[in-house]
Amino acid sequence: SAASDVYKRQKYPTGDYTKIADALGSYNEMVDNPDEVGPAIRRCVETVKSGNTAVLEVMTKEEPLMPHRMF
């Protein structure tokens, strides 16, 4: 949803690599909950076994908002 996209963009301001992967036609997934990592890895492995590419972005920490920071 648009609201969750805004939240993720603010919570993780370094970029959304899943959108890049999606634009390249890859299966992609982003997880920020440790309980979701294992199942996400299994989904990505199954995707790769079926002959497609997969990108799994795992968020490891929340970064503070720094509007002055240049990326």
Question: How would you explain this protein's 3D organization?
Answer:
- This protein has 71 residues and is of the alpha+beta class.
- It is built from 3 helices and 2 strands; from the N terminus they run ααβαβ.
- The protein has helices at residues 2-11, 17-23, 34-49; strands at 27-31, 54-58.
- The protein has a two-stranded parallel sheet.
- β1 (27-31), α3 (34-49) and β2 (54-58) form a beta-alpha-beta unit.
- The radius of gyration is 14 Å and the shape is flat.
- The mean pLDDT is 78.
Per-chain topology:
Elements: H1 2-11, H2 17-23, E1 27-31, H3 34-49, E2 54-58
Distance between the termini: 25 Å
Structural class of the helix and strand makeup?
alpha+beta
In order across it, which strands form the biggest sheet?
Answer: 1-2
Tell me about the biggest sheet? Answer: 2 strands, parallel
**Which range does the strand content fall in?**
5-15%
Low-confidence stretches: none
Q: What is the global morphology?
A: flat
**Residue share in helices?**
40-55%
Q: Whole-number average pLDDT?
A: 78
Note the total helix count. Answer: 3
Query: What is the ordering of alpha helices and beta strands?
Result: HHEHE
